[in-house]
Specification:
The protein is of the alpha+beta class. About 30% of the residues lie in helices and about 15% in strands. It has a three-stranded antiparallel β-sheet with strand order 1-2-3. A three-stranded antiparallel β-sheet has the order 6-8-7. A hairpin with a 2-residue loop joins strand 4 and strand 5. Helix 5 packs across helix 6 and helix 10 runs parallel beside helix 14. It binds zinc ion.
């Protein structure tokens, strides 16, 4: 029982059985109730029971081999007793035990766990160090635009490798419309030279001195695309959001992000709310577009709860917008409900914001760092400290996703 002394509301609980973690849940309440414990579990031979009770929510079932997670956390293997791990360490393994990660689904067998060649950090580092042709002190946009196009294909579950003819038809117009104004449109350059990123395969053509010409690529029937490892990592939601955010903010800061992402099928990544704009249709605001039945429905009770909890005061600036008879605020999902984000409709994924900060948060102009500071994305400067109600557990995992979209992963 003393081992449980450090637990608190908001902590994560992992269930362990047969050398695997089989579920995770979040503590939403702690209480002592001996009569209840006796009724449920009885007593042991010493007349003891388990009266320290945890109420759990956000239960997710899965099967993850326990050993790599435990070793990563510095916990002796095999697990023999209850173990408490601090919140900081927890973040290091959350991705491995992410029930939303497609790595466990049948379509995408697990292959990106620890021990495989390329991980999420390797991918992000490779993307951050892209070799780009510098022209008059401005890096060429050919590679980053091509990478976004290729991520768009993966997201749409299209073939990983693309033949040169198709590549040219699809990528050339993007380079023309979003490349540097004075740069020549040469799709063969990213097709061939993205290999230096370590994330890209070219097949059907032997090593060539310099860049192969378009006619040579066509003759050879060459194809190109993300390597298997890179594609596997990019199928995971957090890694994909971080990759898109990083590419946009590192190489394409002067490009119309919404237009480009829209063209490559990644429109939802231009905002935190994705294809389901938060705040629309609320309190008399007309929806800007029609809804389809596949879009998630937000729970109006949660929306009400967060607004009442903060008395309509914005968690960023503290302002309360006054109306004739009351006050006005907006409930913002941190990780958007709709596609492509598919965040959960939970209090731990909600913020109470004023309309201005809701727009800034949604359009990635501000983000919240690991220490609850609200920072401006363009400068990284701290502008506010996020206000948090004692009963409002905000999940760092969702903020991490939002930071990924901001290119701050
Ligand atoms: Zn505000």
């Amino acid at each position: 029982m003393t081992a449980l002394a450090g637990r608190k509301v908001g902590d994560e609980v992992l269930f362990y059985a047969g050398k695997k973690f089989v579920a995770r849940a979040r503590i939403i309440g702690l209480f002592d109730n001996r009569p209840l414990a006796e009724a449920v579990w009885g007593t042991d031979e010493n007349q003891k029971t388990w009266q320290h009770i945890m109420a759990l929510d956000e239960v997710a079932e899965f099967e993850v081999p326990a050993e790599p997670v435990l070793r990563g956390l510095g916990v002796p293997v095999p697990l023999r007793s209850l173990t408490l791990v601090g919140a900081e360490e927890r973040l290091r393994f959350l991705d491995m035990a992410d029930p939303a990660a497609p790595a466990r689904s049948k379509a995408n067998p697990p292959s990106t766990g620890p021990g495989t060649r390329l991980g999420r950090n390797d991918l992000l580092q490779a993307l951050a160090k892209l070799k780009t042709h510098i022209r008059e002190q401005r890096p060429s946009r050919h590679k980053p635009i091509t990478l976004l196009w290729a991520i768009g294909r993966l997201t749409a579950e299209q073939k990983r490798m693309v033949e040169w003819q198709t590549f040219r038809e699809e990528v050339e117009p993007l380079l023309r419309d979003f490349g540097l104004a004075d740069s020549r449109v040469t799709p063969e350059y990213p097709f061939w030279h993205l290999r230096s990123s370590g994330l890209w395969d070219v097949e059907g053509i032997e090593d060539s001195k310099g860049t192969p010409t378009p006619s040579r690529l066509a003759e050879a029937g060459a194809s190109a695309g993300f390597s298997r490892d890179a594609a596997n990592v990019l199928r995971r939601p957090l890694a994909r959001a971080e990759a898109i955010g990083l590419i946009c903010s590192t190489y394409l800061s002067e490009v119309d992000r919404e237009a480009l992402l829209g063209r490559v099928g990644l429109a939802g990544y231009a905002s935190a709310s994705g294809d389901f704009p938060d705040g629309e249709g609320e309190e008399g605001r007309a929806p800007r577009r029609s809804r389809t039945s596949s879009e998630p429905v937000r729970d109006p009770k949660l929306v009400e709860r967060i607004k009442v909890m903060y008395g309509h005061a914005c968690q960023v600036c503290g302002a309360r917008v006054e109306t004739q008879h009351s006050h006005y605020s907006e409930a913002a999902h941190i990780r958007g409900l709709g596609g492509p984000h598919y965040g959960p409709d939970r209090l731990s994924n909600l913020l109470c914001l004023c309309p201005n900060h809701h727009v800034e948060f949604d359009r990635l102009a501000i983000y919240i760092d690991e220490h609850w500071a609200v920072r401006r994305n363009s400068t990284g400067n701290v502008e506010y400290e996020l206000k948090r109600h004692a009963e409002h557990v905000i999940e760092q995992e969702y903020l991490e996703y939002h930071r990924g979209l901001c290119g701050r992963g």
